[in-house]
Amino acid sequence: MAEFLEMPQATPTMEVGTLAEWKVTEGTALNPQDVIAVVETDKAAMDVEVFDKVVLLKLLCEEGDEVAAGFPIAIIGQQGEDISALLDQFSTMKASGPAPSSAPAPANEDTPAPAKPAAAPAKAPAPKPAAAPVQAGWTGPTYAGKDLDSSLMETWGSFHVEGPRVRISPLARKLAESKGIDPATIQGSGPNGRIVKADVESHKAPAAASVGLPAPRADEKVRNSKMRKVIAERLKESYLDAPVFFLTANLDCDRLVAFRKDLNAQLADSGVKVSYNDLTVAAVAKALRDVPAVNATWGEDAITRLGSVDVGVAVALPDGLITPVIRQADRKSLPQLAAETRDLVSRARERKLDASEYSGASFSVSNLGMMQIESFTAIINPPGSGILAVGALQQEPVVKDGQLAVGWRMRVTMTCDHRVIDGALGAEFLQAVRGYIENPLRITVL
Predict the structure, then answer these.
(1) What are the residues facing 315 on neighbouring strands?
(2) DSSP letters of 93-161?
(3) What φ, ψ does residue 433 adopt, rounded to 5°?
(4) Taking the model in full, what pTM does it have?
(5) Residues labelled catalytic
(6) Fewer CB atoms inside 10 Å of the end CB: C or N, the chain?
(7) Contact 28, 79 (CB under 8 A)
C-alpha cells in the first residue's frame, strides 16, 4: 500500500533537516536498506533508507529544501498504485502545516528600494573655543595654539599619522583641495620648497597605470545552512546566558617540543603521530581529573560535577564548526587519543558523526595555533563550563636564570562560566594544565 516517506528525526532536538541530495529518481525499484536520500542536520549528514521492497512513486520535495521532522518528503509503494489521495492529503498538509522552505529568491534589481524616511536635521556643532594665533603662513602641527618648534619636528614626525609636513600656502591648499590633488605630490617653487598657487595650477596628475584593475566583485548572498543557524542560536544563548571571564597563561614548552619529537620517533612504525593539539587535549583531560570542580555543568538547582572526563575538540568545517567529543579522555594513552581524534575529525568533515559523538562535552579545546594566531578567546560550548583557546607554539626571547635566551612558548586563554568556575578555581586549573605541559612525562601516567 502506498504511503508517505517522512523526514527522519536524527536527534531528539532536531526540528528541521535539509534535503541535501536525492539518491534515486521517481520510478526506481528499491530493496530494503537502499539509500533514497541524504539529509543534513545541524551537525551531520545522514542517509535515509527504506525498509521494504518498494518503488519510489513520487518526490515531494526538492534538493535544498528545509523540511520539518516528520513531514512527508516522498511517496513509496508498489508500481501502478493510485496515489491521488496521498497527493491531496499532502496538499492539505502543505497549506496548514510546516511546508518545505526553499532558498529565498534573489532580489529584483529593477524594483526600486523603498524610500528612506527623511533624516532629522543635524544640530549645528557647538562652536569651538578660539585657539591662540599662530605664526602667519605656518601649516605644520600646533599644540595649545602655538607652533611646534622646529627642534621638536623630528620627534613629532615619529608618531604623527598624517604623513610628512607639507609647506603650502593657505590659498594653494584650498585650490589643491578643490581640484582633488594631494599636496604631497606637488613640487613647490616657493621659499624652502613652499607650494604656492602657481604650483597647483601647473601640476599635472601622473598618468594612470596601463594595467587595468579587475572589475569589483558583485554582492553575493550565501544562504545560511542549518548548521550555521544552529551555531548562531547556541552561541548567542551561551554568550548571553553565561557570565564569563578570561584567564591567560604563557606556557614554557621547551620540554614539550623535545618530548613530542622523541615520542613520534618511537611511534614511527605504528603509523600513529601525536600532534601538539593531542598533547594539549591530554593535558587538559588530566587537569580536569585533578581539579574535578571544573569538570562540571550549571543547573538552576545544582551544579553537576561529572564523573567522566569528556573533552570536546573544535573542528572547522566549510560552513561552520563542530566539536567531536573524546569520551574518558583522561583514561586514554597518547597513541589512543591521537588515533581517536583523527578518526573523529575525519568523519566530522565528512558529516558522518552520530549525534552522541558531538554532544555533551564537559570542557572544550579550540586551537588556532596552526594558523599563526598567538592568542584569542573562545565562546563556551554548552553545556560545558569552560573552553581553552590555544595559540601558536613559537620561539620567543625569554629570560632563563637571569640570562636572555630563546625558548618555545604557547599562550592559552581559558573562558570560564562564572556560575561554575570562580577566579581562583580557574587559576588552579590552569596551573594543573601548566604542570602537564611543562612536564610532559606526567601526561603518560594514566
Answers:
(1) 322
(2) HHHHS---BPPPPPPPTTSPPPPPPPPPPPPPPPPPPPPPP--TT--S-EETTEEPPGGGHHHHHTT-T
(3) -60, -45
(4) 0.61
(5) 418
(6) N
(7) no
